[in-house]
Amino acid sequence: MPADRTAHGVQAVMADVAALAGVSHQTVSRVLNDRPNVRPATRERVLAAVRELDYRPNAAARMLVTRRSRTLGVISFDSALYGPAQMLHGIEQAARSAGYFVSIASLRYQDVRSVREAVDRLRDQAVEGIAVIASQALTVAAFAQRIGTVPMVTVGAIDPARLPGAGVDNLVGAEAAVRYLLDLGHETVHHVAGPADWLEANAREAGWRNALGARSRRVPDSLSGDWSSRSGYEAGLRLRRDSSATAIFCANDHMALGVLRAFHEIGRRVPEDVSVVGFDDIPEAAFLAPPLTTVRQDFGELGRRGLELLVHHVETPDPRKKGTTVGHQAAIVAPELVLRASSGRPPGR
Amino acid sequence: MPADRTAHGVQAVMADVAALAGVSHQTVSRVLNDRPNVRPATRERVLAAVRELDYRPNAAARMLVTRRSRTLGVISFDSALYGPAQMLHGIEQAARSAGYFVSIASLRYQDVRSVREAVDRLRDQAVEGIAVIASQALTVAAFAQRIGTVPMVTVGAIDPARLPGAGVDNLVGAEAAVRYLLDLGHETVHHVAGPADWLEANAREAGWRNALGARSRRVPDSLSGDWSSRSGYEAGLRLRRDSSATAIFCANDHMALGVLRAFHEIGRRVPEDVSVVGFDDIPEAAFLAPPLTTVRQDFGELGRRGLELLVHHVETPDPRKKGTTVGHQAAIVAPELVLRASSGRPPGR
DNA sequence: CGCCTGTATGTGAACGCTAACAATCGAGTG
DNA sequence: CACTCGATTGTTAGCGTTCACATACAGGCG
Question: pLDDT at residue A276 above 50?
């Protein structure tokens, strides 16, 4: 007994629609794909049949013959952090409006093996491109080696020599923050850096160094954390013993929050005794005690821009000349310094 | 000129593997699907050919014939918040170990239309089940109406009457927090609730009411926010004018953070003058000024549990008897009260 | 030695769609 | 009025798997 296509609960196929509309399945296909040369009356009849049967095209069949999955993959290392989560959101939005589905894969560890697993996983799903939210230098390098199999972009940080991507100008943002602190009268600025192997962390540290160097200021040893409040707190415990530290630039807001905590514990006031500046502008930044001066980056925008880049690469016919397509290798978004109450003149000035 | 299958860059198909191994395509299929009745030597030859050609099965073709996509969908409303992001992560992990891919769709607005769009989008992708991270009552209701088309679960909050799901026991968690504050000697406890149409918000508010009622305490008007620090701050502005408010239970940590800010601004000390308790235990909670007493929920675990539930529903053969399968309708995880420095005895005791 | 059984392998036909080509129809043209 | 042309529709052949069935091959038995 053959299944009754039109019965409730059983998915109708194109032939059913064709039969109901009194046309061939090919005409149905034409209507569904907006092909020309279909008489309006016919089109209308087909569409009516589609509605009547609640017909939905079979994705697998279409994919098999067109060889396109209309799916993009996203690989992220720690998608629970604020930045990555926000970027993922931006990516999903942009993918939807570009007509793509989004499939995710997370990186278990930040090693080459995990990278390979994640990429293979997405390839098994026939994704047409991959966006990477994980900018450890190592990871990016690993991804770069898998290139050629499928287009890739990085989101959140860029390493244009290896992969195209979208990111804020971390160097410029860090420089602006440090310059601002120096302008307030601080002798120098201390730095709590991110993990040494992250591109963002490196760029922000470089910006900090640059800004100090440009004014021939002493460059204190930089401490480094893992982006977490805890690591910021631990850095703060050391910084609060150093009386020369009157201004601290942290590589992200969460660490800045930990630093604030460390100073608060022993009654050192911010900004009267010490100034603290963060990076990211998380939504909480304005409501900390005190509200945090920070460098804002628009994560959602980064996600969207990165995805646009990816779509461009996916849809551009000739992938041979990788590296030569200037103008589509990087989207750099400008960061913005947001002044709040955690920064001020150094004590005694 | 036919494409050279074995050339680099062109995907080999099963027939190529078969030819190279000197067997039929069917034998290759058997090896790849771990079917019995293949001689070890043959199997070995096939696997060697697979490696040699870097063969990967065509997902579309397999999907077409097996009618299984091995893909699950996740719909979330605001995946940039800490909780949802974390749950998504847990879901992805669990899906991977259960052998499923994960495809995401975000809800543009929290209305029925958006819900329908998101569900249709995932259905077009032929997902076998959907996990929903968005527990506005309205949304859940909308989802429930689409049931029957594809199995669904909610993650983060549960409304077992409508859909199966995994969540913490918000009621119990809230009760514990309030009881703890009363035990410290506070006359009553004020509440900053979440948005009125969220299941979590309702449950936590109910728990707060219960705990006060059980000891016959006055139930102050509750304020409500939108989960954000800003809304917590605004609630704090009002609460700080009310001298009877010596203890405040907030429906999440972000709002608690805003409340702390509001009191801090006018020099009201926490916990000496007022106690504040949150919900969630975000990673920053321990590093606020003061460290926040809160109710911890393990979001990652919720994601995993929710996904297990979904997989069960997907793989259980008979979906007819919905509602009758007791024991697989809800996974309730116990929350944990975490004591930190933001709570203490009321002033004068 | 013929027959039966089980293991190992091959063959053909779906799955539901799109691409390429064929067929049909009406109107305009010399 | 036969002839061409473009618009419209239909027919056929895959896409790369898995499923159902057919076949071949060995060993055990009477």
Answer: yes
Q: How far is A215 from chain B (nearest CA, A)?
A: 34
Distant-in-sequence, close-in-space partners of B188: CB < 8 Å, separation ≥ 6: B182, B212, B217, B218, B219, B220, B244, B247
Residues in chain A with CB shorter than 8 Å from the CB of B287 are 229-230, 232-233, 257-258, 261
For residue B3, the model assigns a pLDDT of 38
Min distance A194 CA to chain B CA atoms (Å):
17
CA angle B132, B92, A126 (to 5 degrees): 105
* Band of residue B163 on the pLDDT scale cut at 50, 70, 90: confident
Are the C-beta atoms of residues A276 and A177 closer than 8 Å to each other? no
**Per-residue pLDDT tens digits for B90-127:** 999 999 999 999 999 998 888 888 888 999 999 999 99
User: Which residues, 6+ apart, have CB-to-CB distance to B23 below 8 Å?
Assistant: B42, B45, B46
Asked if the Cβ of residue A64 lies within 7 A of any atom of strand D, the reply is yes
Q: What are phi and psi of A242, to 5 degrees?
A: -100, 105
Tell me the one-letter amino acid at B116.
R
Rounded to an integer, the average pLDDT of A3-10 is 49
Contacts of residue A308, Cβ cutoff 8 Å, sequence gap at least 6 = A94, A98, A331
Q: What size, in residues, is chain B?
A: 349
Q: Are A337 and A173 in contact (CB under 8 A)?
A: yes
DSSP H or E run through B224: strand B223-224
Stated in angstroms, how far is A16 CA from D10 C1'? 16
H or E stretch at B253? helix B253-265
pLDDT digits (tens, 9 = 90+) for B224-240: 999 999 999 999 999 99
Mean of pLDDT over chain A: 90
Question: How far is residue B56's CA from residue B42's CA, in Å, rounded to a whole number?
Answer: 19
With H, G, I as helix, E, B as strand and everything else as coil, classify residue B332: strand
Rounded to 5 degrees, φ, ψ at B278 are -110, -165
Instruction: Give the mean pLDDT of chain B.
Output: 90
